[in-house]
Design goal:
The protein is of the alpha+beta class. Helices cover 27% and strands 30% of the residues. The protein has a single domain (16-287), classed as PPM-type phosphatase domain (Phosphatase 2c, domain 1), CATH 3.60.40.10.
Length: 288
C-alpha cells in the first residue's frame, strides 16, 4: 500500500517503492518520498524544500556497493537554499560514487570536509550525518558533523533514544560542520542492528521545532513523540511523526527545508549472485 504524505500542500503525493541495484547512488536536494530495499535494510526518505521550492539546502543520498554488502546513507543541511546549494549536491553524489565500495567511511567524511572547505570561501558550510551499514556483521558506523543526533529504536525493548557515544571524548572539537576546519578529526560511533531496529535521521527543522510549552524539541523531544507512534508501518510512522510535530505549533516545519531518513534493519542477506558478480560490477563502475 502506498503511504500518503500528511499534507495536501506538499508536491509529493505518494510513496514510491523500489529495490536499489548494486553500484547505485541515489539522492539529491529535491522533493521526494521514497522507499528502498537493500540487503539488511529498508530505507524511507522524505524531503521537502522550503516553501515548496524545486531544490533545497537539505541533501540526502543512499548508495549500494558492487555486492550489496555496503550501504551508505548521508543526510546533510547545506547553508543556503534552493539553486545555491544544488552545485554541492552534485559534488556530493560524485564523492559517494567514488567511495561506494569502501567499508571504512573515514575517507568519505574526509572528502566531504575537503569539498566544503573549498566552498567555504563563499561562507558555505554544512552539518551532516554519514552512516555506513555493513550487512555481513549488521554493523552501522555513524559520523555526526555538527548535525543533530539520530534516534535509535530497539525492537527488543521497544524504546527510542538519541544515539550517544563515539570514539572521541570531545565531539564538540572533533566533529565540527564540514567546511569549518580543514584538518579536523571526525569521531564515529558503531552499533549493531538487529532485525526490527530503526535509525531515524533528520535535519534541524525537526530538531528546532517547538514543543507545546514553547521550548525547542531537540532530540529528546522528538524521541518522546516517536514513543507514542506505532512502528509497525515505518512509512506511516514518518508521516505521523511529521504531522504530530506540525500540530504542536503552526511555525513547525514551515520555515526551513525538512528531511527525514528512516532505516529499518531486516533479515535479508546478500545473494550468492551479487557476491559472484561484484568484481565485474566494480570494474564496470571504474570505467563508466
Amino acid at each position: 500500500m502506498l503511504t500518503t504524505l500528511p499534507t495536501k500542500e506538499t508536491p509529493v503525493a505518494e510513496l514510491t517503492q523500489e529495490r536499489m541495484t548494486c553500484m547505485e547512488v541515489w539522492g539529491g536536494n529535491r522533493s521526494t518520498w521514497s522507499n528502498f530495499v537493500v540487503p539488511g535494510l529498508d530505507i524511507w526518505v522524505y524531503s521537502q524544500p522550503f516553501e515548496g521550492d524545486e531544490q533545497g539546502g537539505d541533501v540526502y543520498y543512499v548508495s549500494s556497493c558492487a555486492s550489496g554488502r555496503i550501504t551508505r546513507m548521508l543526510v546533510g543541511d547545506v547553508s543556503g537554499h534552493g539553486s545555491e546549494a544544488s552545485v554541492l549536491s552534485t559534488e556530493l553524489r560524485d564523492i559517494m560514487r567514488r567511495n561506494v565500495n569502501y567499508i571504512d567511511q573515514s575517507r568519505v567524511v574526509k572528502s566531504l570536509n575537503e569539498q566544503f572547505e573549498e566552498a567555504a570561501t563563499v561562507g558555505r558550510f554544512a552539518t551532516a550525518i554519514v552512516g555506513t551499514y555493513f550487512a555481513p556483521t549488521r554493523s552501522l558506523t555513524v559520523c555526526l558533523a555538527g548535525h543533530p543526533s539520530p534516534l535509535i529504536f530497539r525492537a527488543e525493548s521497544q524504546t527510542w533514544a538519541p544515539l550517544v557515544g563515539g570514539d572521541s571524548s570531545d565531539h564538540s572539537q572533533s566533529n565540527m560542520p564540514f567546511g569549518i576546519l580543514g584538518e579536523q578529526n571526525f569521531a564515529s560511533t558503531k552499533l549493531k542492528l538487529k532485525p526490527g531496529d530503526l535509525v531515524l535521521a533528520y535535519t534541524d527543522s525537526l530538531y528546532e521545532a517547538f514543543a507545546a510549552n514553547g521550548e525547542m524539541l531537540r532530540a529528546v523531544g522528538i524521541a518522546e513523540i516517536a514513543k507514542s507512534i506505532s512502528v509497525d508501518g515505518p512509512g506511516d510512522f514518518v508521516t505521523t511523526l511529521l504531522q504530530r510535530i506540525r500540530d504542536l505549533n503552526p511555525q513547525n516545519l514551515a520555515s526551513d527545508d525538512t528531511t527525514v531518513v528512516l532505516a529499518r534493519a531486516n533479515s535479508e542477506r546478500v545473494s550468492l549472485k551479487d557476491n559472484v558478480l561484484a568484481p565485474f560490477r566494480l570494474l564496470r563502475g571504474l570505467f563508466s
